Amino acid sequence: MNLNLFNNLIDSTKENNIFQKFIKELSEFLKENERNQVPLVQKILGERILTTRYRDKINVERREIINNYSKEHWEEGEFYYVYNKRSDNSYGLVNHKNGESGINIGAKESELPKGAGVDSVLKVKNGKWILDKEATEEIQAELTEMINRLLEEQTNRMEMQRVEGYLYRFVEKTGDTVWLIDETNYTGECFEEINFPSELSESATEGTMFQYINGEYQLYK
To answer: Based on the domain organization, do 146 and 168 belong to the same domain?
Structure first.
C-alpha cells in the first residue's frame, strides 16, 4: 500500500472521529440547554391541557412550595428562583427569603452558571450566580408531585362533569378549552371542558346544545 495514502487514511479517520465526538458533545449540549429552557410544568404536561382553575392552582401552589422551602432553610439565606425565560432571552428571577417572595429581577443567559435554567435555584457568591443543585432537585421533586396530583384531580373533576346522556349548552371557546353549562342537572354555573371536539367548537355559537354520548360530545338535534 502507498505510504502516503495510508497516512492520509489515518489522518482522515482521526479527523472523522474528532468530528463525530464534536457532534455528539454539541448534541448533548443542545439537549441539556433545551431541557433547561422548558418549565417543569410544561415538561410534565406534554400535550395535556390545563383548565384556568388548575393552571391558577399550580401557580399558587408552586409559589407556596418555594416559599416554604425558603422558610425551612432560612439559615441558608436568600435564593433566587428562575421562573421563566423572557422573549429577549433573559431569565426572570424572584428573590425568596424566610418564607416570603421578594423582588423580581432579570438575568442574562450568559450570566447564568452552567446547567442552570428555568426552575433552577440560584444564589449569589462573590458577585456571581451559582447553581444550588440540592435545592433545585428538592423543589423540583415537590413540584413534580404537586403537578401530578393536581392533574389527577383535574381528570377526576372532568370525569364527574361528563355524564352519559346529559345535555350541555355551549357558552364560548377560549384558547384550547370551551365553557359549557350542564342543562340536565342545571345549577346555572359554567364549567371549563378540555376535551371537546375542535370541529364542533369552531362552528358552535352561544346556546348551541350538545349531548354527551358514548364518551364524547355530539351535536344535539
So the answer is: no
SS (H, E, C) 152-183: HHHHHHHHHHCCCCCEEEEEEEECCEEEEEEC
**Residues 137 and 169 grouped into a single domain:** no
| The three three-digit cell numbers of residue 93, written as one number | 428571577
178 and 71 within one domain: no
φ, ψ of residue 171 in degrees (nearest 5)? -105, -60
Picking from 107, 131, 158, the residue at the C-terminal end of a domain is 158
Q: Are residues 203 and 96 in the same domain?
A: no
Q: What is the pLDDT of residues 57-68, one digit of tens each?
A: 999 999 999 999
Domain extent for 55:
40-158
pLDDT value of position 13: 55
Which position has the higher pLDDT, 41 or 36?
41
Task: Enter the pTM of the model.
Answer: 0.76
Number of independent structural domains in the chain: 2
Whether residue 34 lies inside any domain: the answer is no
How many angstroms separate the CA atoms of 129 and 136, rounded?
A: 14
Residue 38, pLDDT score: 75
The count of other CB atoms within 10 Å of the CB of residue 119 is 21
Name every residue whose Cβ is closer than 8 Å to that of residue 140 and which is 6 or more positions away in sequence: 40, 119
Strands (E), 58-152: 79-85, 91-97, 100-107, 121-125, 128-131
Tell me how far apart the alpha carbons of residues 126 and 221 are, in angstroms, rounded to a whole number: 71
Q: Do 68 and 115 belong together in one domain?
A: yes
pLDDT band at 27; cut points 50, 70, 90: very low
